[in-house]
Design brief:
168 residues; alpha+beta; Methane Monooxygenase Hydroxylase, Chain G, domain 1; Ribosomal Protein L9, domain 1; 2 domains; 3-stranded antiparallel beta sheet; two-stranded antiparallel sheet; 5 strands; 13% strand
Length: 168
């Protein structure tokens, strides 16, 4: 059975720890039941205790939420999963990590689009006729644009190590 002192002890342990603490089985449902029971009692001591416990619960949840948000960022960066989350917290956690990953992927794909790529000639090639029937000559260390050569020729020269992709 959950008591005021037990709730306060759980909140203190949560506050003092950097990671989410393991909660007692059915803690959230027991907490709801405790609050409902206290709300039904009308003595001044119960009203005072109810107000205090609501403040403790608010601090407890704020602490857990902060750890959940920081954990989502940490997981996106490292792949390491946090421990001791309730089922509801896990649902929120996976939603947050998904949104953060999606945001990052979209942001960085936009940056990639803005980068200008080119090719650096690694091995000189004497004059030759490309598949488009144009004559080309490649000089070692020359930087050429990605559309200088026809795509099939680019692919072949990349595969053979004659050119390599670089940022302009």
């Amino acid at each position: 059975m959950l008591t005021f002192d037990k709730i306060r002890d759980i909140e203190r342990a949560e506050k003092e720890s950097k990671k989410p603490q393991k909660l007692p089985e059915n803690f959230l449902s027991d907490l709801r039941d405790y609050l409902k029971k206290k709300e039904q009692l009308k003595s001044s001591a119960d009203v005072h205790e109810l107000e205090n416990v609501r403040n403790i619960i608010r601090r407890f949840f704020e602490s857990r939420e902060k750890k959940l948000l920081e954990g989502a960022l940490y997981t996106v960066r490292t792949g390491l999963q946090p421990e001791n989350l309730t089922k509801e917290e896990q649902d929120l956690f996976y939603f947050l990590t998904g949104r953060i990953k999606n945001f990052r992927e979209n942001f960085f794909s936009e940056i990639q689009k803005d980068k200008k790529l080119a090719y650096k000639v690694m091995k000189a090639l004497p004059a030759f006729v490309g598949p488009d029937m144009k004559t080309y000559e490649l000089k070692e260390n020359e930087i050429i644009s990605t559309d200088f050569l026809p795509k099939p020729l680019n692919d072949l020269l990349l595969k053979e190590g004659v050119i390599e992709t670089v940022e302009e």
